[in-house]
């Protein structure tokens, strides 16, 4: 199939992109095109206007900004994986990105695109929620920062206003004793996950002081399971109890990859898999 007709604007600065987006309710941003173009070609989406932001310079910066790691929206997954600042400060992000698609897609797909798209099966939105990241958006009224948990509202639904564009993501730097541990189950390497878990842990295997569990590919957005994390801290790993807790806390939604019951089972097993990676 081919995409429906649309007008195309290639912009070289952010203000022009914001201006066009503000004027047209149906205009959408084109970044790496790895999610948008297949959706257009399959006619899952038919916007009247595309604003190509890929030529805007400076939006791919990766740097330490105060106590945060800042990743510019146009940094590709490959840019992030090969960046020394990321490697030194948040090596877990590189391990996570190795599970995102394949090299050809990672060479084009952008960090901001993945965050903005909000695919419930994607790894980066869950990482942003697990690490309490801030999403920086820019619009007609200037810049604002949205906490990742408040950013994801529902299925492919985010808190971005029509005139706004994601310009970067700020991940708090990890504190002493803090670890981000991750795992997912997928049918083939590079496929979207059937279920995945990112855990933000303070402490060591035998002395976990704080635990945050964020699941992806389970519901309609990154799923935070605070009650289940508390249960694990109080009682350790008990499959039945944790499964019951997860089923009351998350609205598991089946997809082409797996049923909701399978996702619930995998999510329960992932708690054990992820936490067994911790060292003493
Ligand atoms: C075969 C295949 C397998 C994949 N597997 C995975 C996977 O396992 N895990 C995973 O996480 N992803 C996967 N992806 C998606 C990939 O990571 C995409 O790169 C990413 O989701 C979107 O990035 P993009 O730059 O290509 O965005 P685009 O496709 O250009 O845009 C996607 C959406 O985000 C919006 N958007 C983009 N940038 C911005 C911005 N700066 N501000 C506001 N809105 C913006 C667009 O308007 C559009 O609605 C896969 C893709 C393919 C084709």
Structure in a nutshell:
By secondary structure, the protein is of the alpha+beta class. The chain is 34% helix and 27% strand. The strands form 4 sheets. The chain has a 5-stranded antiparallel sheet with strand order 4-5-10-6-7. Strands 11-12-13-14 form a 4-stranded antiparallel sheet, sandwiched between helices.
Based on the model shown, name its key terms.
single chain, alpha+beta, globular, Uridine Diphospho-n-acetylenolpyruvylglucosamine Reductase, domain 2, Uridine Diphospho-n-acetylenolpyruvylglucosamine Reductase, domain 3, Enolase-like, domain 1, 12 helices, 280 residues, 14 strands, 5-stranded antiparallel sheet
Topology:
Elements: E1 7-10, H1 14-23, E2 27-30, H2 36-41, E3 49-52, E4 62-65, E5 68-72, H3 77-81, H4 84-89, H5 91-97, H6 103-106, H7 111-117, H8 123-130, E6 134-139, E7 142-147, H9 148-151, E8 152-154, E9 157-158, E10 165-172, E11 178-185, E12 195-204, E13 207-216, E14 223-224, H10 226-235, H11 239-249, H12 260-275
Helix pairs in contact: 10-11, 11-12
The structure holds flavin-adenine dinucleotide.
Flavin-adenine dinucleotide (FAD) binds next to β2, α2, α7, α8 and β10.
């Amino acid at each position: 199939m081919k995409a429906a007709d649309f007008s195309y604007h290639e912009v070289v600065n952010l203000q022009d992109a914001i201006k066009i987006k503000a004027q047209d309710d149906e205009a959408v941003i084109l970044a790496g095109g790895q999610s948008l173009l297949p959706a257009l070609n399959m006619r899952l989406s038919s916007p009247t206007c595309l604003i190509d932001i890929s030529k805007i310079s400076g939006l791919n910066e990766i740097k330490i900004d105060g106590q945060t790691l800042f990743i510019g929206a146009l940094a590709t997954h490959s840019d992030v994986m090969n960046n020394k600042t990321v490697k030194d400060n948040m090596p877990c992000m590189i391990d996570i990105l190795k599970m995102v698609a394949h090299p050809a897609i990672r060479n084009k797909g952008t960090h901001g695109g993945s965050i903005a798209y909000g695919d419930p099966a994607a790894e980066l939105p869950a990482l942003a929620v697990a690490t309490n990241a801030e999403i920086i958006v820019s619009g007609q009224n200037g810049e604002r920062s949205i906490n990742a948990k408040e950013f994801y509202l529902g299925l492919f639904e985010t808190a971005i206003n029509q005139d706004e564009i994601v310009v970067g993501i700020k991940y708090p730097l990890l504190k002493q004793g803090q670890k981000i541990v991750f795992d997912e189950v997928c049918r083939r390497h590079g496929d979207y996950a059937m279920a995945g878990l990112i855990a933000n842990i303070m402490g060591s295997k035998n002395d976990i002081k704080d635990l945050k569990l964020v699941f992806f590919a389970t519901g309609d957005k990154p799923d935070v399971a605070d009650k289940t994390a508390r249960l694990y801290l109080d009682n350790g790993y008990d499959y039945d109890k944790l499964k019951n807790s997860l089923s009351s806390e998350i609205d598991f939604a089946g997809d082409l990859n797996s049923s909701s019951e399978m996702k619930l089972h995998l999510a329960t097993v992932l708690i054990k898999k992820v936490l067994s990676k911790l060292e003493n």
